Amino acid sequence: MNLRRWLRPGLGVKRWLVVVFVGLLFLALALALLLRAVYRDVTIEGPLQGLVSAITLQWLPYEARGAILATLGVGLFVVGSWRLMRALVGVYRPVDADQPLVELIYHKRFLSRGPRIVAIGGGTGLSTLLRGLKEHTSNLTAIVTVADDGGSSGALRTVLGVPAVGDIRNCIVALADAEPLMGQLLQYRFPADPGRPSDAEPATIAGHAIGNLLIAAMTAIEDGDFEEGIRQVNRVLAVRGRVVPVSATPLTLHARLRDGTVIDGQSRIARTQGIERVWLTPEGVAATTDAVAAIAEADAIVLGPGSLFTSLLPALLVPAIADAVAVSPATRILVCNVATQPGETTGFDLADHVEVLERHTRAGIADVVLANNDFGARVSEGWRGEPVRLRWPPDGPEVPRLVLDGVVAPSNAHHHDPARLATSIVRVIEQTGGRRRARAARTA
Q: What are phi and psi of 377, to 5 degrees?
């Protein structure tokens, strides 16, 4: 059974076995010619002649000799190749792996041929998306916002001056191969002081997640280079794909409400209703080189899902990111949230989400809008949101193509289902051909 698995298409094993077999065949032919020359041209008498005759099976019919040698050769070749393969690759098999090494190799080679997908955003929505997409491709790049200012991320930002790391940690956990164990480790928070208020900033390491401290430590090891620190964390934890910060500079999110009030800070804005516009400081901040390069090389760019004003827009408000997405030849897919968020998107429908996105970036920023049309999911008790209504199209000169699919989690009406969402996105990529606008982009 394992041998048949090793010979499946896609592993890249059979071609090299054929090369080895042909090489051995040539060696066997050379040996046969040598034996023939010795037997015919060299005079051998006495007991040595009988030995040579026995070795070359002269006492059997010609056809029988061929059948015996062929059977023996095939048997030795199969057994030798199998044992050699086990000896060479056995040392690389994880000791706690719950599936054969051949399955792990096949899975990785299959994923390595998947489309190059860049996902932009933050929060729970982005990590949910990555959990689904990593089962279809390992060519994944998550470009994550760094504007969070609350909890452990906010405290580390204040003390160490590093950008927010909470969303980056969540994405690394989502892309980890050993996700349950890695998640428990990186998400673990040291117990807080019971005497401190619950909303107070963490003291020392109390309340901090292990993953946040790991990222902060790696940044310090790299002499304060946040982008390089994240690169090294990706390498050390061997995530499937990579996680990239949108900027190496700590960002602050601001919002103006319809009544003219200005609110500062992502954590406060997330609880606010009636947002008219959001922006970042410092203005004109530089994007990371890895983020811009990943967008330029992508087959598909996925915007969202996630909090519209506090997760998705803070990433797209970095000028170089918005420009790179706008001129990218990739298929650009906006994943609309399945439900409104109490506060920042209360009462929003599908068209409202698109209009806000285009008003803060530019018209035509998305080629396709993927929205949920399954409204039978379970609603949690006390939930103050509501499913996003499918009003369409939005106002504007360039209306993206709408794709409806059941992407909500059946057990939770305000979360996407990772597998359903990833399957729908991959289907859209296959239908559009990925970099379908390449010619037009090069012309422009």
A: -70, 160
d(CA 389, CA 252) in angstroms, rounded, equals: 31
Point out the residues of the chain with pLDDT beneath 70: 1-13, 38-50, 52, 56, 85, 87-107, 178-183, 185, 190, 192-206, 396, 434-444
Contacts of 147 (CB under 8 A, 6+ apart): 164, 251, 252, 253, 266, 280, 310, 314
6 and 123 assigned to the same domain: no
Residue where a domain stops, chosen among 30, 62, 90: 90
- Give CA–CA dist 54/42, Å, rounded: 16
- CB within 8 Å of 222: residues ≥ 6 apart: 228, 229, 232
* Domain identity same for 240 and 119: yes
Helices 289-297 and 319-327, packing angle to 10 deg: 10
Name which of 354, 432, 437 is nearest 397 in CA terms: 354
Q: What CATH number has the domain bearing residue 254?
A: 3.40.50.10680
Q: What is residue 161's DSSP assignment?
A: -
Last residue of a domain, one of 59, 90, 121: 90
Residue with tokens 């969402």: 421
196 and 335: one domain? Answer: yes
Distances (CA, A) of 177 to 52, 104, 204, 234: 59, 11, 31, 12
The DSSP result for 119-147, as a single string, is EEE-HHHHHHHHHHHTTT-S-EEEEE---
Q: What is the pTM of this model?
A: 0.77
Q: What is the pLDDT of residues 258-307, one digit of tens each?
A: 999 999 999 899 989 999 999 999 999 999 999 999 999 999 999 999 99
**Number of domains the chain is built from:** 2
The partner residues of 368 in beta bridges, in order of sequence, read 333, 401
Local structure of residue 365 (DSSP, 8 states)? -
Residue range 347-402, pLDDT digits in tens: 999 999 999 999 999 999 999 999 999 999 998 887 888 999 999 987 767 789 99
Domain ranges, residue 213: 109-443
CA atoms within 13 A on the CB side of 311: 25
Whether 70 maps to a domain, the answer reads: yes
